[in-house]
């Protein structure tokens, strides 16, 4: 009978956790799609710059680094803001439970690392498609 009582106590929390998980997956998917779209747009805007750099001898790694450097700074600033806020929010939420754990900074940083890897995957894949194009096509357009 204890499990029925625990189900009554934590049933609402289980439903909220399932909803939060679903919405988290959807937000990551939408953020990834937006990031790929933004990277595609920025690559098209800077297509001539990348073509000139490629003609002058820049290798693929330097072009990819050039494209992803801007996004890396934005991600770093976002992490510096989001990690403390997330730690405080999780501490407040977990403080209501009878048996709770303390979230640690390592888990937050590991999740941030996963997020950065997802971000870099989108940026590098789109930037690679732009950087591998023949530079003469971009320079002939005007």
Shape: elongated
Radius of gyration: 22 Å
User: What is the typical, i.e. mean, pLDDT?
Assistant: 85
The number of helical runs is 5
Instruction: Report how far apart the termini are.
Output: 78 Å
List the uncertain runs.
none
Structural class: mainly alpha
Tell me roughly what share of residues is in helical segments. over 70%
- Characterize the main sheet: none
Task: Describe the protein in words.
There is one protein chain. The chain is an all-alpha fold and 142 residues long. The longest helix has 44 residues. It is elongated, with a radius of gyration of 22 Å. Helix content is 85%, strand content 0%. Helix 1 packs parallel to helix 4 and helix 3 runs antiparallel to helix 4. The protein is built from five helices and no strands.
Tell me the layout of helices and strands.
Blueprint: H1 2-45, H2 47-55, H3 60-94, H4 105-131, H5 135-140
Q: What is shown here, in short?
A:
The chain is an all-alpha fold and 142 residues long.
Key features?
142 residues; 85% helix; mainly alpha
């Amino acid at each position: 009978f204890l499990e029925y009582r625990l189900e009554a106590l934590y049933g609402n929390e289980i439903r909220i956790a399932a909803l939060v998980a679903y919405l988290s997956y959807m937000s990551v998917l939408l953020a990834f799609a937006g990031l790929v779209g933004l990277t595609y747009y920025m690559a098209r805007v800077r297509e001539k710059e990348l073509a000139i750099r490629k003609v002058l001898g820049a290798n693929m790694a330097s072009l990819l680094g050039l494209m992803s450097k801007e996004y890396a700074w934005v991600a770093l600033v976002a992490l510096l803001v989001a990690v403390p806020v997330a730690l405080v929010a999780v501490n407040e939420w977990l403080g209501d439970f009878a048996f709770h754990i303390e979230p640690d900074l390592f888990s937050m940083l590991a999740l941030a690392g996963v997020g950065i890897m997802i971000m870099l995957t989108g940026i590098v894949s789109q930037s690679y498609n732009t950087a591998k194009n023949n530079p003469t096509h971009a320079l002939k357009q005007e």
